[in-house]
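Exercise: predict the fold of this chain.
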Amino acid sequence: MSEHLMKPAERELEEARGYLFDLLDQLNELMVREEALLSSKGILPRLSLIVSLVTMHRYQMDLVAKNYWPQLDVLISQLSQIPELKDKLREILADAEAIRALIGVSK
């Protein structure tokens, strides 16, 4: 779509998509590397489900922002509460913050 035909909000959603793709990659890697820890904390099933749903709809950023982002954002917040993961979440938290700013969600 041509830049001049896009509505202002569409431009931010398009930009957020790049951060979302990186976030999904990082979360998938985290789920593989830290499977036992995430399972023991009870986060893995919910995280796996929401990451799958977001991945399935990743090209429909408006749908992701409205329906899935709030749940994913809560799970990312829960991940940041786990002391063993503090050092492993820098990129995930940075991507999440960029997405929040672009889709107009405050933390």
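Check your answer against the key: Residues 8-33 form the longest helix (26 residues).
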